[in-house]
Backbone:
């Protein structure tokens, strides 16, 4: 089984989970159908299933065209009326088998009120949409900061070797902010240098082990991160208070 990033729009990734033996693939959050169709044709593959994390258009915009192109494909998604054509509405703690993958459904609202992720325990894969990014996290739309904070704590409980497949290429910008928060962190600097030296534009997947070292939104108990937050309006070292200040400062970061 191979996992391949299909680029879409300016910074989206539609993750293709490929079963070469059967000539099939599954994809996560197809905001645009055309690159998925082209990928399938180029690699002589047929789309078997679509996994959706949330309702935003850059994650579901390709659904109708893909259904027309592959009428037998099966669509999984959260219980949200804003998402059309879902064959199987999945719930928190539910387990689904898609090809060789057995996914546990994680409920992680915050970015949106119904956001879910797909976690494959045996292979330690997490398809987390816009909740967690490398060195960052999603903005809050119709969820709450409290929910997003709790969702990131849920991810922290996964094995550190878990591979993080998020839906956007935001790593460089996120690392720049992380370095502002924690300027003496050598691991952040190492990651920045690695990106600048790499000929490849895709920085993903990350691992939870790396994120626990570089991602300030997962490190609200770290003294340097707390120091930054306290200097920018936090009134205590409470994890949620630190998180709220970090998210507000990241919203303003250029």
Residues:
């Amino acid at each position: 089984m191979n996992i391949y990033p299909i680029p879409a729009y300016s910074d989206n990734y539609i993750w293709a989970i490929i079963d070469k033996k059967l000539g099939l693939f599954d994809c996560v959050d197809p905001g645009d159908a055309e690159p998925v169709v082209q990928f399938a044709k180029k690699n002589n593959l047929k789309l078997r299933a679509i996994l959706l994390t949330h309702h935003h258009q850059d994650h579901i915009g390709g659904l109708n065209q893909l259904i027309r192109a592959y009428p037998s494909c099966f669509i999984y998604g959260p219980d949200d009326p804003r998402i059309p054509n879902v064959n199987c509405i999945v719930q928190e703690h539910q387990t689904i088998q898609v090809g060789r993958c057995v996914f546990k459904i994680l409920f992680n609202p915050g970015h949106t009120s119904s956001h879910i992720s797909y976690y494959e325990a045996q292979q330690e894969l997490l398809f987390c949409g816009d909740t967690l990014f490398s060195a960052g996290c999603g903005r809050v739309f119709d969820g709450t900061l409290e929910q997003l904070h709790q969702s990131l704590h849920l991810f922290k409980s996964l094995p550190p070797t878990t591979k993080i497949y998020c839906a956007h290429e935001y790593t460089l910008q996120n690392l720049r902010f992380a370095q502002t928060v924690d300027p003496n962190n050598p691991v952040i600097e190492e990651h920045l240098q690695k990106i600048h030296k790499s000929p490849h534009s895709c920085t993903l997947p990350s691992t939870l082990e790396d994120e626990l070292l570089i991602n300030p939104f997962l490190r609200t108990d770290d003294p340097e991160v707390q120091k930054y937050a306290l200097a920018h309006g936090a009134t205590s070292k409470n994890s949620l208070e630190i998180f709220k200040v970090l998210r507000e400062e990241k919203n303003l970061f250029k």
User: Anything to note?
Assistant: The chain is about 35% helix and 25% strand. Residues 33 and 65 are 6 Å apart (CA to CA). The longest strand covers residues 12-19. The chain has two domains: 2-165, 171-252.
